[in-house]
């Protein structure tokens, strides 16, 4: 239910931090083009052997409109689900990771910080904070048994990790109980041990034990078969630092001072009634978000508990702001972003890139462009270096206008054991996976 990269058995569950924020993506990313490229690569013997055995959309079925939408395989009686864990290579053992335990959380943090997703040039690596991990892995109704680690039997060192969290995800008119799979990470020195496929099978088994048969995940690599392919865009907030660390380049005929001026933002937000979300706002924000997400083909089915967990502000994890009409006191608009820094590798002057990622945004009275500009102003005030956004939902409507540049990172969305007949445009997708 998570992914594996055919080149070195290592999945990039999330987009790569983008070393060139201003390079444009020249290639054709339609699913038909991806299918063609995959057919070409199959002739070179690069088969996705593991994924061809799984209930996921297969490249050979792309464009076959006779296949029904919905589950690919029927559910199995729970009594027939394998009760024992899958076998690991003899030197390793399974462990269930208690994210509430400080020592365990530190181990997970260290494993991810040193071995998780890097960009192609090995300049940046995701650096999820412990607070972020606790937020990401403990939503309402989470299962501790879905936080799976692999340890070396002798030393007890944690060398691999994979997680799932429960989510209600609506596909067209059907609300489906799913697992969101994330954080598949194998220690760099063990990439040849074929641990990833076993870990994917084990998380799948544990998800099945809870009578859940579908999953959602994302990857920076192409696997069978994306339901949608999205692109990351980046908005410089601290252009000098981004250029200094190699995240972006100085534009042609541009100087540093002109670049700084180009990306300068106002000191304060402009929308009347723009303020931080509070606990008392949960019912109003839930109504706003549910109504907004109803227009997308695939989107989460949030209730108040979900909104409280995922969107109530948590320092250095998630920031949420809303617009409360000064006249009627009605909550009319909402914007949010989460914090995911990257370690800067091998730079003398800087060690961390502080990045904000656009999360869920709803505009009903305030123009989305204005709302997001206020979000940029807030992020800049909080010392973020860059603001990232996917071109999903209605995001494409503000990206160019607000001086976002297209990155060269793509993010592919996948569903496990659920077929969608037609590839979705990014604007038909209402789901953000961390």
From TrEMBL:
Gene3D superfamilies, A to Z: 3.40.630.170
PROSITE patterns: NMT_1, NMT_2
The protein's Enzyme Commission number: 2.3.1.97
Glycylpeptide N-tetradecanoyltransferase C-terminal domain sequence ranges: 244-427
Catalysis: reaction(s): N-terminal glycyl-[protein] + tetradecanoyl-CoA = N-tetradecanoylglycyl-[protein] + CoA + H(+)
Location of region: Disordered: 1-32, 60-79
Source species, domain of life: Eukaryota
Residue intervals of the Glycylpeptide N-tetradecanoyltransferase N-terminal domain: 71-230
Compositionally biased residues, Polar residues: 21-30
GO cellular component, as recorded: cytosol
Catalytic EC class: transferase
Gene Ontology BP terms: protein localization to membrane
Any GO MF annotation of the entry: glycylpeptide N-tetradecanoyltransferase activity
Transmembrane segments: none
Keyword terms, alphabetized: Acyltransferase, Transferase
Pfam hit, one: NMT_C
Family according to the record: Belongs to the NMT family.
Role this protein plays: Adds a myristoyl group to the N-terminal glycine residue of certain cellular proteins.
PANTHER family the record matches: GLYCYLPEPTIDE N-TETRADECANOYLTRANSFERASE, N-MYRISTOYL TRANSFERASE
Protein name stated in the entry: Glycylpeptide N-tetradecanoyltransferase
Organism in which the protein naturally occurs: Nelumbo nucifera (Sacred lotus)
Origin organism lineage: Eukaryota, Viridiplantae, Streptophyta, Embryophyta, Tracheophyta
Gene it is expressed from: LOC104600662
């Amino acid at each position: 239910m998570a992914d594996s990269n055919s080149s070195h058995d290592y999945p990039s569950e999330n987009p790569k931090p983008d070393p060139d924020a201003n390079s444009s993506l020249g290639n054709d990313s339609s699913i038909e083009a991806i299918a063609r490229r995959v057919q070409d690569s199959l002739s070179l013997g690069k088969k996705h052997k593991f994924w061809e055995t799984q209930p996921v959309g297969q490249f050979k079925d792309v464009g076959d409109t006779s296949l029904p939408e919905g589950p690919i395989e029927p559910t199995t009686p729970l009594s027939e689900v394998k009760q024992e864990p899958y076998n690991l290579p003899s030197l390793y053992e399974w462990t269930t990771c208690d994210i509430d335990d400080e020592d365990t959380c530190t181990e997970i943090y260290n494993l991810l910080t040193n071995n998780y997703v890097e960009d192609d040039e090995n300049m940046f690596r995701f650096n999820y904070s412990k607070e972020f991990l606790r937020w990401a892995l403990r939503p309402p109704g989470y299962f501790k048994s879905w936080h799976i680690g692999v340890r070396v039997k002798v030393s007890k060192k944690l060398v691999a990790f994979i997680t799932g969290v429960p989510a209600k995800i609506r596909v067209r008119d059907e609300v489906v109980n799913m697992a969101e799979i994330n954080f598949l990470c194998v220690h760099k020195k063990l990439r040849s041990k074929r641990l990833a496929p076993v870990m994917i099978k084990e998380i799948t088994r544990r998800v099945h034990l809870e009578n859940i048969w579908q999953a959602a995940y994302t990857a920076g690599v192409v696997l069978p078969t994306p339901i949608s392919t999205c692109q990351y865009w980046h908005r410089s907030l601290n252009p000098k630092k981004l250029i200094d660390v190699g995240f972006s380049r100085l534009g042609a005929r541009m100087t540093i001072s002109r670049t700084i001026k180009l990306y300068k933002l106002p000191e304060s937000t402009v929308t009347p009634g723009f303020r931080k979300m509070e606990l008392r706002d949960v019912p109003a924000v839930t109504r706003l978000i549910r109504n907004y997400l109803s227009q997308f083909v695939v989107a989460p089915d949030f209730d108040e508990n979900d909104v409280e967990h995922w969107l109530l502000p948590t320092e250095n994890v998630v920031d949420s702001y809303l617009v409360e009409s000064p006249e009627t006191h009605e909550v009319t608009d909402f914007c949010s972003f989460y914090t995911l820094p990257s370690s800067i590798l091998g730079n003398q002057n800087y060690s961390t890139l502080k990045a904000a990622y656009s999360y869920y945004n709803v505009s009903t009275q305030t123009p989305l462009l204005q709302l997001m500009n206020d979000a940029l102003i807030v992020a800049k005030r909080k010392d973020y270096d860059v603001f990232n956004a996917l071109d999903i939902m209605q995001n494409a409507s503000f990206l160019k206008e607000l001086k976002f540049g297209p990155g060269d990172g793509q993010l592919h969305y996948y569903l496990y054991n659920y077929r969608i007949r037609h590839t979705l445009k990014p604007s038909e997708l209402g789901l953000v996976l961390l």
